[in-house]
Amino acid sequence: MSEGPASVEVLGCRLDCVDIEEATERILAFARSNRSAQIVTLGTEMVVAAQHDARFRAALAASALNVCDTVGVLAAARRRGARISARVTGIELLERLCAAAADEALPIYLLGAAPGVAIEAARLLAERYPGLRVAGAADGYFPAERATAVAEEIARSGARLLFVGLGSPRQELWLADHLAQSGAGAGIGVGGSFDALVGRVPRAPERWRRLNLEWLYRLLREPHRWRRQLALPHFVALALFEELRAFLGGRQGR
Question: Residue 222: CB partners within 8 Å, gap ≥ 6?
């Protein structure tokens, strides 16, 4: 990767300037260690939500690593000097980490999605990456009062890599509160990756992904998502306003 800042601020949210290779290496190092490191796949919806949710904003700030998940965040980061070649999406990161975990015998745990989905995703991953040790899998349909019990179950499993697909901000807040209790070395929020792995949610074809139009493909396939997609123009407006304010502030300071 070209020289550039180690991290940049996107609307007050830290983004670490890493590609998928460096992200994978750093997360594996966390998984091997005795610490509990939270990893965030930062997207436009999350940045917008953080503007008016102090608890969520604090969770993003305290994470060990924030990688770039969406095209909006990628564009904003590049305007701030980031040298990031491409997005680091949750599902691609999950698959890279599982391939490496199979080689290193690092146990994984999948938490999230509807009943049966995480178990099926774990089965498919174990088939795809021979030698992968699946310590456990559980759905995300548990009440708040069971959050601690779920973390304790993960701790008993011995998992070192914990993939959490509870949707944002629930997955980030759960990890912020319970990752240390789970005993995992690294906990990563992966959104709807389990659904994509088992085919419940179709992934965009590679051509659409190369053009950074995965969001448009999803919208065309699932028109009911239009409300969620409003986060993108909202994000763009906030980013442009921030740049304008910085420009005017610079002129006044001369």
Answer: none
**pTM, rounded to two decimals:** 0.86
One DSSP character per residue, 200-250 reads: SSPPPPHHHHHTT-HHHHHHHH-GGGHHHHTHHHHHHHHHHHHHHHHHHHH
User: Where are the chain's structural domains?
Assistant: 7-199+208-243
The answer to whether residues 192 and 4 touch, using CB atoms and an 8 Å cutoff, is no
**55 phi, psi to nearest 5 deg:** -65, -40
Q: What is the mean pLDDT of each run of 10 residues along the chain (254 residues)?
A: 82 96 98 94 94 96 96 91 92 97 98 98 98 98 97 98 97 98 98 92 63 57 56 75 66 58
Task: Name beta bridge partners: 223.
Answer: none
Residue 6 phi/psi, 5° resolution? -70, -30
